[in-house]
Amino acid sequence: MDFDFAAEQSKLVQLLIGIAAFLVVVAVILLLVDRAPMRRRAWVHATILLLPATLLLGVGLVVPAIRTTLLSFMSGDSRQWVGLDNYGWMFTQPEAVTVLRNTLVWVLLVPLLVTSVGLVYAVLVDRTRFEAVAKSLVFLPMAISFVGAGIIWRFVYAYRSVEQEQIGLLNQIVVAMGGEPQQWLQEPPLNTLFLIVVMVWIQAGFATVVLSAAIKGIPAEIIEAAKLDGASPLQMFFQVTLPSIRGAVIVVLVTQSIGTLKLFDIVRTMTGGQFDTSVIANEMYNQAFRYGETGKGAALAVFLFVLVLPIVVYQIRQRREVR
Amino acid sequence: MTTLASTVVRAKDTTAPQRVRRRLSGRVASVVAIVIAVLWTTPTFGLLLSSLRPEDQIKTTGWWTFFADPQLTLENYREVLFGTSSSSGQMMSFLINSVVITIPSVLFPLALATFAAYALAWLPFRGREWIYIGIFALQIVPLQMSLVPLLSFFSQGVEIFGLQLSPAWNLEGPARFIQVWFAHTCFALPLGIFLLHNFMSELPGELMEAARVDGASHGVILRKLVLPLVLPALATFAIFQFLWVWNDLLVGLIFAGGTPDSAPMTVRLAQMAGTRGNEWQRLTAGAFVSVIIPLVVFLSMQRYFVRGLLAGSVKG
User: Can you give the residue ranges of the ABC transmembrane type-1 domain (chain B) (predicted)?
Assistant: First the structure.
């Protein structure tokens, strides 16, 4: 029961070494930039400043992404070329198709729900006395890790048999209303929805903050004009508020779609991908790092990239238009 | 004429909007807002309260029974933090790991991105547009795509056609932190450079020009002129990166392994949730320990963070 602090010292030493080494790197870069004569062309300075970042990006992202693409055409142990076999597996085998179907459900529902909840809440608390507090309450889960959130919600969904007293809030409510306690996370297809609730819970605050700022940005004259015309609250919302904040709504939808596609932690903490709840990112981890099926894992990663690509391209074009 | 019109508007101002507001903040609207707020707060509150209840009570009764039979204890925290048997949380070790992982993983990309962003924003050299677009585009690459090759880069080195280009690192024990720092730094750079570049390129060019005429080097301009001006952007990126690294599971799982030597707290929590899913006294206390630090940072830095969000910069 005694925690031994001395045993942890080597970590702190490592931390100090790491930071010291990095400070040396920073000092060398600054020294080189200072010494390089200003008469010289800009590219000398640029090379010194850009070299560390581009080197790391090359080693950490560019080369690996290319290698992953190649690996996706190879067998599990990366010794033979197998053509499109891994992709064939992904689109035909039932367990893989379930994964794709779940991902589709996630990426359709999460952005929609997050945006709707965030929008409704932002409109409702706008210009009330409690606005700041109300927004912080919903925004707080943003700071919580997906793992932490997963545990929080496992506790909400906890199951005890009928004879026992319930410790999970959801089942307690069900029992109080005269129902039978349910194993929320073990019964497909509904369990995926219960996982989605967790993601919506985490992300809604983000949507609230972004959309609330957009709502405050609507020019006062437009609101006044609509009020003078005697618009009802609902008319105000659909004919004034919503069209005015279209850009912000799109930003939220896009970022949520990308985040949802890459989602991994919630599924892993709450069900481990069992009971038909796995999604692409989780299955990619399982295949590549647990089953040693590097080829299949790589194919899933490449597919993820292909799915994210059009969303990002759309976002870039959208941004250009705004500018 | 104009004064008359504005008086009319102002007169209406006090009646029409008031009416609208009264209707808007009517019962239904308030009830919906309160329901959402309660739904969003209750799960975390339940976890906090549970973590403070005695073990036998957590396992047999719901946390809401606390109000009928209030009993609080810090025993769960003591055990999960300081227990040293492998079945207890050993959270203190993992907490230290998280700190050791997070500090460099925020500092390194922050500094390197600042250098790169300055070069891309203020140094006129050929091909700079292309490098900038290339780095921007790297944001698209999902981290999942680089995990397998990057891990083998550390464990086996780089070998092309039988030629060993770089050695295997074979990091053990605390040295494994190096590969976690490395991975986090790589993954953070595209967003960091993008964010800081946007901010830096807005700075007035005359300022740099004047400094250069006075004979200041790029190093001096960067340190004395640019750095103080881009502090808000640096703070935003630092908070983003802190939350991202502290809350990360995937990178930690793959590059730090799963032992108390180097794995962050999220990895430990995921393990506990998987193998001892019913040890609620440890899970709840452990989860709360992992949540409290980012919450504190987040609450105290919320203003910067929100400003960063509104700049339209988000890490997916």
Answer: 95-301
The C-alpha atoms of residue B82 and residue A6 are separated, in whole angstroms, by: 13
For the record, the structure tokens of B5 come out as: 């019109």
A236: contact with B, CB 8 A cutoff: yes
| Mean pLDDT across A279-303 | 87
Separation of alpha carbons A202 and A191, rounded Å: 18
Q: What is the length of chain A?
A: 323
Please name the amino acid found at residue B230: V
B48 exposure class (CB count in 10 Å sphere: 0-12, 13-18, 19+): middle
* Residue in A closest to B81 by C-alpha: A3
Q: Give residue-wise pLDDT tens across range B97-146.
A: 999 999 999 999 999 999 999 999 888 888 888 888 888 888 878 888 88
Q: Does the distance separating the beta carbons of A67 and B273 come in below 8 Å?
A: no
Q: Is the CB of B125 less than 8 angstroms away from the CB of A41? A: yes
Percent of chain B with pLDDT over 90: 16
Contacts of A11 in chain B (CB under 8 A): 96-97, 100, 174, 177, 262
Which ipTM was obtained for this model?
0.84
Nearest CA in chain A to B93: A8
Q: Spell out which residues of chain A touch residue B309, defining contact as CB-CB under 8 Å.
A: 206, 209-210
Phi and psi of A99, rounded to 5°? -60, -45
Q: How many CB atoms are closer than 10 A to CB B286?
A: 31
Interchain proximity B128–A46, CB inside 8 Å: yes
What pLDDT, in 10s, does the model give residues B282-292? 888 888 888 88
CA distance A299 to B145: 9
pLDDT band at A85 (very low <50, low <70, confident <90, very high): confident
pLDDT at A251: 81
Q: Which residues of B touch A41 (CB under 8 A)?
A: 125
